[in-house]
Structure formats: C-alpha cells, structure tokens
Amino acid sequence: MRPSLRSFAKLAVSTTLGLCLTALPLAAFDTRARAAFVLDQGTDTVLLSKNAEVPLPPASMSKLMTLYVAFEALRDGRLTLDEHLPVSAHAMGYGGSTMFLDTTDRVRVEDLLRGIIVLSGNDACAVIAEALSPDGTEAGFARYMTKRAQELGMENATFANSNGWPAAGHRMSMRDLGILAEHLIEDFPQYYPLFSEKSFAFDGRAPSNTRNRNPLLGLGIGADGLKTGHTAEAGYGLVGSAKQGDRRVIFVISGLDSNAARAEEAEALVNWSFRQFAQKTIAKAGVPVAQAEVWRGAQQSVGLVAESDLEVLLPALTGKQIAAEVVYTGPITAPVTKGQQLAELVFQPDDLPEMRLPLVAENDVPTGGFVVRLKTAALVLSRQLIAGPEASQ
C-alpha cells in the first residue's frame, strides 16, 4: 500500500519542563461557614471552595442580582439615576430592613440604589423590580432575574423575589454569588464605589437604619464591598471583596451563627487570602517555553510562547518544586499561524485546582515544498514498516 500522510496518527504529546515552580503545601482555611467560596480575581484562581455548588437561601445577598439588572437598565437607557419611581402597596408592605417607604413617595433611582446597598432595603428592591419587570410585578421580575442569572453562568440561581425574603425555591450557591460579584465589579466599575459607602441617611426618616452592615469597611484591609445577608434559615452571610496592591479577592460566606462570627470569619479570610498567596510570573510573553513538532512544514518545529505574561497565584512561602508540563496533540500539521493556540502549560500546586494556561505559536510555519513532502512520505513509510503490516490497513 502506498504510504498516506493521513495514516500517521496524531498523539498526545507531553513535555516535562525544566521550569519548576516553588511552593510549600498549603493548609486549607478551616472556615466555620456552612458554605464558602474565595476567588483571586486577577488570576481566576479558586482559593477556597466549601459546599460552593450547593443551592442555599442567599437572604439579602440576592439583592446583588436586582442591582445588576438595575445597572444594566441604566447602561441601556431604560432607567436614569434622576428618575423618580412610585412606591406600590406591595413594596411598602415589606418588613425587615427597609427604607420606610410609603405609597405617597416617588423616590429617585439613585436613592433606591443606595437604599439597597447601604440600608438593605427590601422595599427599595421591590420598587426597582416593579419598574423593570416585564409584567410590572415583582414575581415577573424574579423570573427575569433567574433567566438573566443563568445566562451569566449562575447555574444554581433561582429567584422568587427581588430581595431575598424567605421563599420556597429562592436559592443561590456560593459560586453563583462569586460570579455575580465579579460581574458587578468588572461590568459596572462606575457604580462599584457605591458598595463602599458606610452610611446613607435617606430623608432623615430612619435614623436607626443608616449604617452599612458590611463589617469590613473601614478596617484598612482593602475591603470595598459588597453585601451582607441574614435570615433565620440562611444564617449570617457576606459577599465581600477586597483589594490590596494589584490583587483583588472576592469571597462569599454563609451560614455563620452570629454577626460577630461573620465579621471575624470575613476578616480572617481576607488576611489569609493575601498573606498566604503571592502572584508569580511563570512565563514571559513571547519567550518560548518549549518546541512543538510540525508535520509537513517549512520548519520542523515551532516555538510555544505565551501571548502575554502568564501569572499565577501560588502559596507565598518557598519549599518543594512543582513540575510543569507542556501538553499538545502532535505532530501539528502545517500551515501554522503566529498566535494560533497549540498547547497548554499544565501544573497543579498542592491543595489548589489544576492550572492549564494557553500557549500559542511563536511564528508562522508555512506548508513545506516538494522536498519536505517527499521526506514526510518517507518518514510515514519507515514508521509503517517498523509498526508492521497492521498499521497500514
């Protein structure tokens, strides 16, 4: 049988690098929270995950989804900050944390947003919900919230209302809340400073409810958001974020048994996240970390490089070496285009998820000419002869 270039099977290629990352085994944070999720935003590294996929009652932390939908409406021009919205009897009827709104009020959207963020106003959420609902009801808004959350990747999020008032089926996972926090920070930076406001005295009518319940604001640890939550069923929870230097950490905790426990646990998590991890550059942009074999190319190999500096988060203290591997399916068939993703740099520090970072072609590799094709055919033939007659069937 004539040798066919297609008869040479592509195989997974793994190359262990001389590159070694250095880190000590990391003791996991022993959180008292029923469920927790901690993410280093810049490197997208999950630092802690405890029952993070379990749908749980999110209490007032679900107000963040109402805020996200409101910010989208502001961005799209369907709502303005100076617009005044009416208060329905339904909205006025909410208890718990409120702005003490009544049906004679018409409230500025900006005040409602502050009322939700700082005062955790259940009534303010309902006002926003009815204004933006497809059918004018809070229930219709909750259905839209669920749909929008699923589109944003919150797989376990289902809403029965706009504010987290206890209701059957009103659930979010800690990972859902982490995803939502990241979207709020990245998608709407112009509104994010609202989450760090420590107080809001709306119209002087509720002097006992003017302080932001976030226990980390003002501690000097970089905390600047986002939302607390508490019901008897959910316990005490917090969706938080803190920034120190160039690093930002997002964290979610739920199921604590007291306000004091929530404050202590949140501060301890922030300190652990920043003190026990360091961001390290493991590959410089454009510098080859390995070579990949090219089939039928004008060159026999191509450099594998990072498009930009590859930065990862690792335990801060030095210790044993962590070997990295370059993995790709090869040989790679020409032509190859500069910047084409060809491989991944794979490694796994202790107690952290496996990390897979993309590597791309350093340069173009065009298809080779007649001589290259002849050599390729000869190589295929020789490998088939070595493998035996079954390989060519």
Structure, explained:
With about 400 residues, this protein is α+β, with helices and mostly antiparallel strands. It has 2 domains: about 5-25 and about 280-390, Peptidoglycan synthesis regulatory factor (PBP3), Domain 2 (Sandwich), CATH 2.60.410.10; about 35-275, Beta-lactamase (3-Layer(aba) Sandwich), CATH 3.40.710.10. Helix content is about 25%, strand content about 30%. The protein has helices at about 65-75, 90, 110-115, 120-130, 140-150, 175-185, 260-275, 370-385, and strands at about 10-20, 35-40, 45-50, 85, 105-110, 225-230, 235-245, 245-255, 275-285, 290-295, 300-305, 310-315, 320-330, 330-335, 340-345, 355-360. The protein has a 7-stranded mixed beta sheet, with no helix packed on it. The longest helix has 18 residues, at about 370-385. The radius of gyration is 27 Å and the shape is elongated. The termini are close together. Residues about 1-10 have low confidence and may be disordered.
